[in-house]
Amino acid sequence: MRSSRDDRLLLQPQSAPPATWNEPTPGSVVDLDAAAGADHHVGAHAQSVTVWGLAPHYMKHSSDMLPPRSATLPVVPPRQLVPILDDDRGPATFFHGRTRELRSFAKRLGYARQSNRGTIFLIQGGPGAGKTALLFECAQRATGDGWRVAKIQDSALYDPRILAARLDVPYATQTTVHREAGWRAGLSSVAALFRYRAVRRSSEHAGLEIRELLKDAARPGGLLLLLDEVQNLQIRRGAPAAAAIAANLDLIHNGEIGAPVVLLAGGLGTSRAVFGTFGISRFMQDCVQHLGRLSPKAERAVIRDWLVKAGGGTGSPYHLEHWIDTLAAECHGWPQHIQAFAPRAAEWLYGAGGVLREEVPLEVLETGQTRRVAYYEGRAEGLSLADRRVLAILLGEEGSTLEESDMIAALLGHRTPDGAQAVFQHALHKGVLSERPNGSLSIPIPSMRTWLLQEYAVSAQTLPPMSRGEERPTPARQGVRARRGDNRDRSPEPER
Known about the structure:
Blueprint: E1 10-13, E2 29-30, E3 42-43, E4 48-52, H1 59-62, E5 75-76, H2 99-115, E6 119-125, H3 131-144, E7 148-151, H4 160-167, E8 173-179, E9 199-205, H5 210-217, E10 223-227, H6 242-253, E11 261-267, H7 271-277, E12 288-291, H8 296-310, H9 317-331, H10 335-351, H11 362-380, H12 385-394, H13 404-411, H14 417-430, E13 434-435, E14 441-442, H15 446-456
Parallel strand pairs: 6-11, 6-12, 7-10, 10-11
Antiparallel strand pairs: 1-4, 2-5, 3-4, 8-9, 13-14
């Protein structure tokens, strides 16, 4: 046992539990959710544990969650843990935060239903910002409010058959004709006893147009359409369907369907500009939401849920807070990073019987760091080494932004004009670059900027190694002159 002078957490077994305390059965778990404000003894695996010596620095992040000095953790019956689904797409296993975006969305739904008009509500942000999870959360709340919700793809904006299938409504009317052969002259009396077999023929007539389909589906409570990865609409530009897409988007955006129809769209930071290519430029107030990192409070709540509700974390609440601190330092509030670290930590806890150690196991951190780098590599795929160096130099300083012309001029040092434009568009499409509300461009994930600098900046080798959870110091932004020469990068151009 540690010295009494040590003001850190001390765990001291009780020689005998108080008379009012019931000894738990083996396998009982400690409910950390109920730890706040607890002031009685705890038994875990037939042994009681008393928490002593709360140091002031433990109150830094979560004073409202910690028990008073000499508090103990209560015992609760075994509970059903949340399944650990290691998937960064779709609904979030644990959702916290985004209150401003949800409030704006609820306000817009209310206005649409009251005015009997629809609009487009856009959620855009960098890769891994939690756009898809927020779309599902909005859809779930709309369903609870009586809205009909349908997830669509861009093809449903120009093909009524596809839209009808997504809405689960019939598209075409069908007429059935029953034909039966009659008596035929000249037939023998024996042959006259037989008739030709009845024949059924069907003919299909054109169904409703998209406007009518939407209007009918919106009755009586309103229709919410979910369109994710909306930046992919850009591949429809110049296609035969582009005019129909533009016309139907305009009907929804301007509330001309004649019913409350709202298109909830999610995409990368260039999504608003993509809508502009289809004639949608002016959005209603608060109808464009830019997602960034989670607030510290929301980030910690998500990590806590993973550790306790999925991993079954038990034991000292101070150990729990230390685990949350350590993982939050790695995640920087980015939902995708939380998904890289927290499920692995929950898996480890579950395998260890839920007992929280004083320190997060190194294998948990290493696995999360490997997943994080793999995510960066996937986003940067298609960019050559020289392209990545340009990005690292131009956006080396924290908070740096650039214009399209800056990027093109820098790329001309090793690419042709067409190649430079292709690289720029590819970086936008992959989410390496994202448009800010003021129109400037930046790397949307702060820790990805640090990774690019560490791996590809010209002066990276002179910088000290980056410790876990720290943003690496960056060199001053360097200007890159536009120049052309024979030393062009001959690597394949990225896909447009």
